[in-house]
Amino acid sequence: MRVLSVVGARPQFVKAALLSAELERRGIEEVLVHTGQHYDANMSDVFFAQLRIPEPAHNLGVGGGGHGAQTGEMLRRLEPVLEAERPDWVLVYGDTNSTLAGALAASKLHLPVAHVEAGLRSFDRTMPEEINRIVADHVADLLLVPNAAAAKQLAREGVTEGVRVVGDLMVDLAMRVSAQIPAHPAVLDRFEVQPKEYAVATIHRASNTDDPRTFGRLLEGLRGVGMPVVFPVHPRTRAIGQEFGAGNGDNIIVCEPLPYMEMMALLARSSALFTDSGGLQKEAFVMRVPCVTLREQTEWLETLEDGWNVLAGSDPEKIVRASKRITPMHQGTPYGDGHAAAKIAQALLERAPAYAA
């Protein structure tokens, strides 16, 4: 069997790390296609190296741009690759423009689409990611959902065929990595911080970075939390961060995006995470780090249970208040049993008629 996997952004590289290894273990051929959505070396190359992801067979080199231009260029460059490769499955991950382009290009060529992380909804259609995930779900032939709640959401939308509950690849990898992180990882010395005496922040969504007033309110909140805040700056955020003087005489420690292992070590020993990222909300949950989500909604509703995650939007007072809440005690296990990669590979085999057991 031949699987063509479309990746383009940090969360997809993390998910592909486990699944690519599992496909290889089972003797399933994988053709990896990198759209180039994240093209900064710190957001792309270093992930392939650290996580031992195979080199892409095709790098489309699309780069940045507006949503329409970027997605359109991905479609244009993906189509001849798909026509040449003719895989048994086109595999897409999550909710990025790469996800949307991969799902649309494959479906128009009548190639079977498998969507990893299907069924998630923030119910905020102002987010491009929400549109991407809805469209991908409704053209997919195999919907690989992280939990029963996502399967129920698909059923409410009339999607019941091809739905498989498999768990969560990002959570599985974070669990494995977490067990290997020392009490005082070396990355802390780089920023001169001590375990549990600092926070971590990431801001990259257009809704937070394209509006100067919103970004200014977020910085106001981070400056009020009363501890150092290590802020790896996404390329999208770099210019506005400099404009607002982030890291100039305040408690914010600005740095370049960090490789996966260093970021996980920094997160694991922090006292709180402030983020608008979906994947980091889950990674904080796994590492039992209280999270403050800098959005009004989240697609990871399970992280809100028992107070592990709090929605603060861009309200500085909410951000500060959430940072001072009591650390939760109880924690559920809503994202599977640690074997998502094996379940996804098995589902791909079972749903491909020529390879059915």
Mean residue pLDDT: 93
N/C terminus separation: 13 Å
Q: Order of helices and strands, N to C?
A: EHEHEHEHEHEHEHHEHHEHEHEHEEHH
CATH class designation of the largest domain: Alpha Beta
Q: Please compute the radius of gyration using only Cα atoms.
A: 20 Å
Strand arrangement, major sheet? 3-2-1-4-5-6-7
> How many individual β-strands?
13
Find the CATH superfamily of the largest domain: Glycogen Phosphorylase B
- The CATH topology annotation of the largest domain reads as Rossmann fold
Task: Give start-end ranges of low-pLDDT stretches.
Answer: none
CATH architecture of the largest domain: 3-Layer(aba) Sandwich
Q: For the report, how would you describe the main beta sheet?
A: 7 strands, parallel
Helix/strand-derived category reads alpha/beta
Structure in a nutshell:
The protein has 357 residues and is of the alpha/beta class.
Features:
single chain; 357 residues; alpha/beta; Rossmann fold; 2 domains; seven-stranded parallel beta sheet; six-stranded parallel beta sheet; 15 helices; 13 strands; 42% helix; 15% strand; globular
Report on the structure:
It is a single chain. The protein has 357 residues and is an alpha/beta fold. It folds into two domains: 2-168 and 336-355, Glycogen Phosphorylase B (Rossmann fold, 3-Layer(aba) Sandwich); 177-323, Rossmann fold (3-Layer(aba) Sandwich), CATH 3.40.50. The chain is 42% helix and 15% strand. The strands form two sheets. Strands 3-2-1-4-5-6-7 form a seven-stranded parallel sheet, sandwiched between helices. Strands 10-9-8-11-12-13 form a six-stranded parallel sheet, with helices on both faces. Helix 13 (278-286) links the parallel strand 11 and strand 12. It starts with a strand and ends in a 6-residue tail after the last helix. The model has no long low-confidence stretch (mean pLDDT 93).
